[in-house]
Write a structure and sequence with these properties.
By secondary structure, the chain is α+β, with helices and mostly antiparallel strands. Helix content is 34%, strand content 35%.
C-alpha cells in the first residue's frame, strides 16, 4: 500500500508542479496589435467555426486581448465601419515559448511533460497568434464589390 501511495504522491507532485508551462509563462491571452484606418473601425475575432471570441472593439485602442488559439487553430479578424467595406485577415499560429518547455519536460519526465503539453494545448497557452499585428485600411463603401 505504501508503494502505491508513494507513486500516487509522485504523480500528484509532477502534475501540480509541471502543469502547463505555457500557461504559467504566457497565460491564456495574447495582445494583438491593431493598426487599422480609418479611426473608429471596429474589430472582431472569430474561430474557424464562426464563433466570435473577441470584439467588437474600437481599433484605435491599438491592442486587443485575444484568447490564444486552442490546438493551433486559425482566427479570422474582421474590421468594419459604417460607410466602408469590411476587411478580413486570416491568422495562423506558432508554438509559444512555454510549449518548448513542455517538450523538455516530456523528455525529462514523461508523465509530467505529457500533462503539461495537454494542458497548454487545450487552454491555448502553448500557441501564439501569428502575425501578432493586424494592419490595413478599409476602403470607402462605394468601392465594395458584392
Amino acid at each position: 500500500m505504501t508503494r502505491v501511495s508513494a507513486a500516487l504522491q509522485s504523480v500528484l507532485v509532477l502534475a501540480t508542479t509541471q502543469i502547463g508551462c505555457g500557461l504559467m509563462l504566457n497565460g491564456k491571452y495574447q495582445d494583438v496589435h491593431l493598426v487599422i484606418s480609418p479611426p473608429g473601425a471596429a474589430v472582431s475575432v472569430y474561430r474557424w467555426d464562426g464563433t466570435r471570441i473577441a470584439g467588437p472593439q474600437d481599433a484605435s485602442n491599438g491592442t486587443m486581448e485575444v484568447h490564444r488559439p486552442k490546438w493551433a487553430g486559425p482566427y479570422l479578424f474582421m474590421a468594419s465601419k459604417e460607410g466602408y467595406c469590411p476587411k478580413y485577415w486570416l491568422t495562423g499560429s506558432t508554438e509559444s515559448f512555454g510549449s518548448y518547455v513542455d517538450y523538455v519536460l516530456i523528455v525529462g519526465s514523461l508523465l509530467g511533460g505529457l500533462i503539461a503539453a495537454a494542458v497548454d494545448s487545450t487552454t491555448g497557452a502553448g500557441w501564439q497568434i501569428e502575425p501578432s499585428t493586424v494592419a490595413g485600411s478599409l476602403e470607402s463603401g462605394a468601392e465594395c464589390v458584392r
